[in-house]
Amino acid sequence: MIPGLSSRRRFADLSEREILALAISSEEDDARIYRSYAERLRGQYPASAAVFEAMAEEEDEHRRLLIERHRARFGDTIPLIRREHVSGFYARRPVWLVENLPIEKIREEAEAMERQAAQFYARAAAAATDAETRKLLGDLAAAEAGHSNLAEALASEHVTPDAADVERRAARRQFVLTWVQPGLAGLMDGSVSTLAPIFATAFATQDTYTTFLVGLAASVGAGISMGFTEAASDDGQLSGRGSPVKRGFASGIMTTVGGLGHALPYLIPDFWTATTLAIAIVFVELWAIVWIQNRFMDTPFFRAAFQVVLGGALVFAAGVLIGGG
User: Fold this and answer.
1) What gap in Å lies between CA 237 and CA 138, rounded to an integer?
2) How far is CA 80 from the centre of its chain?
3) Nearest-CA neighbor of 271 among 205, 322, 215?
4) What is the mean pLDDT of residues 39-66?
5) How far, in Å, CA of 120 to CA of 133, rounded?
6) pLDDT tens profile 275-311
7) Three-state helix/strand/coil letters over the chain
8) Which residues are CB-neighbours of 291 under 8 A, at least 6 positions away?
9) If we measure between CA atoms, which residue out of 226, 219, 146, 137 comes closest to residue 185?
10) Cβ atoms within 10 A of the Cβ of 124, count?
11) Fold entry, domain 9-159
12) Which of 79, 120, 213, 261 has its CA 20 to 30 A from that of 308?
């Protein structure tokens, strides 16, 4: 027997009283989850927070109806049975796994919750023998299935075009702060700071494999350093820049990518072929940085081009002069 499964009941083996108790606890959990979403979104997305708050109130009403039905049939004492006690029953993702997701993903998670709840009530209604209980469970199945319509109705009430535009701007700003800004800083550091050691080694040794090893070490080392520095510099609570783990990964990975771009060509044995390809890749990297700055950071194109290309050219020239001397 698999450990942990012996204490779980099959849904088919539950009594009607246990099914009602399971429904009550599930509605309680879903209401808490929706309120957690509302609290998570209230600062940046107040209109969407109002939608989730209204959905939580709807779950509270379902719970109240279920408790009244349980009291009428079985009395005031409700058995303790939860989702995790039932084999094969759907589970909710922990809120802490969802709370850092973009707002679109949170809405998708809520839609999945409603579909699962509708399926549960449909099965529960089919298993019920009491007419009133069966009617209630069937009504709740229809209500959960229609919650997407409720969400749309609430959205039309709370998420006006102006509010939706504000939320889109806030979502874009959060994306830039959490992913683009640290990723761009990493790409700039990896692309520019590794130019000198890689090309100095290349022109000093004219050994492509040694140059590749130096470039690999410089890129990976810089990526680790930038990633930890970004993650440790700001927990995001006051600045609103988002999860330090996400920012650290964005910065560290892009730093490594920026350095490896012009290190990988030195896997080619011929020195001048590898060097020509590496220089071409440097050119692409620098213009990619310019494009990202212009696209996401609203930096004027020519100013970004001047700063990045000039800085990169100076570092490249330093590496060539040091290595060639």
Assistant:
1) 44
2) 34
3) 205
4) 88
5) 14
6) 999 999 999 999 999 888 888 877 788 887 888 878 8
7) CCCCCCCCEEHHHCCHHHHHHHHHHHHHHHHHHHHHHHHHHCCCCHHHHHHHHHHHHHHHHHHHHHHHHHHHHHCCCCCCCCHHHEECCCCCCCHHHHCCCCHHHHHHHHHHHHHHHHHHHHHHHHHCCCHHHHHHHHHHHHHHHCHHHHHHHHHHHHCCHHHHHHHHHHHHHHHHHHHHHHHHHHHHHHHHHCHHHHHHHHHHHCCHHHHHHHHHHHHHHHHHHHHHHHHHHCCCCCCCCCCHHHHHHHHHHHHHHHHHHCCHHHHCCCHHHHHHHHHHHHHHHHHHHHHHHHHHCCCCHHHHHHHHHHHHHHHHHHHHHHHHC
8) none
9) 226
10) 23
11) Ferritin (1.20.1260)
12) 213
Q: Round the average pLDDT of the chain to a whole number and report it.
A: 83
In terms of Cα–Cα distance, which of 112, 90, 91 is closest to 101? 112
Contact 285, 279 (CB under 8 A): no
Domain ranges of the chain: 9-159, 167-324
pLDDT of 39 reads: 87
Token pair for 176:
């830039």
**Residue that the structure tokens 């990526």 belong to:** 223
pLDDT tens across 172-221, in order?
777 777 888 899 889 999 998 899 999 999 999 999 999 999 999 999 99
Kindly report the backbone phi and psi dihedral angles of residue 84, in degrees, each rounded to the nearest multiple of 5, phi listed first.
-70, -10
What is the token pair recorded at 39?
């609290």
In this predicted structure, the answer to whether residue 2 has a pLDDT above a threshold of 80 is no
Picking from 103, 114, 121, 118, the residue whose alpha carbon sits closest to that of residue 151 is 114
